[in-house]
Design a protein that fits this description.
TIM Barrel; 4 domains; 9-stranded mixed sheet; 3-stranded antiparallel sheet; 16% strand; binds iron/sulfur cluster
């Protein structure tokens, strides 16, 4: 963006032109127009504080400066962490837990001021509000639910590491997140004392990876690893890169969505030293697609980090084709390739978040063929009991008729493919 500010556009003459003519008046005005456009764009792109953020800051944190707002430590320090606090910012509905209820549930509240600024204070049905604000439905435990539905603890050979698939492991680096999602699969371990880790607690997991030469892919998750101090992130990446059989490192994070100011130049400079490094960003709804998130994604993408997304399918939040299409297309514009759409895991008290599985298939069917293939994620169920991710697809294969395969396209039309090799 800085480059754009100082850059003058030079429009060369058309090649092969016989005569050199002085630029015409209209040519000059065209150049001036383009330069002015680039200047305006550079100015606009320079500002990381959207009008919405500015207004929220002025209204709720009048003592704080824009510099404070853009400081991720300030954001964490000023996060809302109690229902009492929350009630200062939004008008709680009857189903949302109120300060007077005296209820404390196992997953605490935490919302950064930035993410709170995206929440509609008067609309309890707003999607992202439902992902953050605790409701009484969380206390209704339904059949089939479990505190650790994916049996990650069972597949954990050493603390803070899950080894389920043949060649890759999940490294649980921290139990801390900058915002706690009410449907979190790991709500049994996030925000719990046992998982506020220090680097010493990583040692058994690091030793395990060193000793297991089949592990070529490490996914660092938690909690949210990008909430850790730079020095801890760098230490972990250095240790993993020192293991010769670890080919790729992945980081799972929601930080670019809920705390985009955390994606600082200093952090990016660390991350880009440890390629091949991939980042999966947890995104839920198009309301999250802000200028701030875009800039955070750009900083990561410009450092050569391939970005993917993961989204949980949530009832009445993002379970429609138009909403999902808008989210997936928006992510692509932010240079994030939609990767997974998860059926919501049956954690305790999650029935109000879960859709029938058919809904997920219907959404994929409504995306496939109707928008860019890049915008279509894999819809998966993480099988309860530790079975791993199972992909679910609409059935486009309709059978066989002699040497022809019967197919259905995205519009429901039928086709035959000659397959004489059968
Ligand atoms: S950011 Fe991820 S780990 Fe943290 S609460 Fe949300 S879903 Fe759970």
């Amino acid at each position: 963006m800085e480059r754009l500010q100082n850059e003058k556009v030079v429009i060369s003459h058309v090649e092969g032109s016989e005569e050199e003519e002085p630029p015409s008046q209209s040519f000059l005005s065209e150049e001036a127009l383009i330069n002015s456009y680039l200047q305006t764009r550079a100015e606009r792109d320079k500002s990381s504080l959207s009008p919405r953020s500015q207004e929220f800051l002025r209204q709720y944190f009048p003592e704080a400066t824009e510099k404070d707002w853009l400081n991720w430590h300030w954001q964490l320090k000023n996060s809302v962490q109690t229902i009492d606090d929350l009630s200062r910012f939004i008008n709680l509905s009857d189903n949302e837990i109120r300060p007077t209820s005296g209820i404390t549930n196992s997953l605490p509240v935490r919302i950064t001021p930035y993410y709170l600024s995206l929440i509609d204070k008067n609309n309890a049905d707003q999607a992202i509000r439902k992902t953050m604000v605790p409701v009484f439905d969380e206390f209704i435990v339904s059949e089939g639910e479990a505190s650790d539905p994916l049996s990650e603890e069972h597949d954990s050979p050493v603390p803070n590491l899950v080894h389920r698939y043949p060649d890759r492991v999940l490294f649980l680096a921290t139990g801390y997140c900058s915002a706690y999602c009410r449907y979190c699969t790991r709500s049994h371990m996030v925000a719990k004392d046992k998982c506020h880790l220090g680097i010493k607690a990583w040692e058994p997991a690091l030793k395990y990876i060193e000793q297991h030469t089949e592990v070529r892919d490490v996914l660092i998750s938690g909690g949210d690893p990008l909430t850790m101090p730079d020095i801890h992130i760098e230490y972990l990446l250095t240790r993993l890169r020192a293991i010769s059989h670890v080919e790729i490192i992945r980081i799972g994070t929601k930080v670019p969505v809920v705390l985009p100011m955390r994606i600082t130049k200093a952090l990016v400079n660390i991350l880009k030293k440890y390629h091949p490094l991939f980042i999966s960003i947890h995104a839920t709804h198009p309301d999250e697609l802000t200028l701030e998130m875009k800039e955070a994604c750009e900083r990561l993408a410009n450092a050569g980090i391939p970005l993917g997304s993961q989204t949980v399918l949530l009832k009445d939040l993002n379970d429609s084709i138009p909403v999902m299409k808008k989210l997936m297309q928006g992510l692509l514009k932010f240079r994030v390739r939609p990767y997974y759409l998860y059926q919501c895991d049956p954690i305790l008290g999650s029935a109000h978040f879960r859709t029938p599985v058919e809904k997920g298939i219907e959404i994929i069917q409504g995306l496939r063929g109707f928008t860019s293939g890049y915008a279509v994620p894999h819809y998966v169920i993480d099988a309860p009991g530790g079975g791993g991710k199972i992909p679910l697809l609409p059935d486009y294969f309709e059978g066989r008729e002699n040497n022809y395969v019967l197919l259905r396209n995205y519009e429901g039309k039928h086709f035959k493919y000659p397959d004489f090799s059968h």
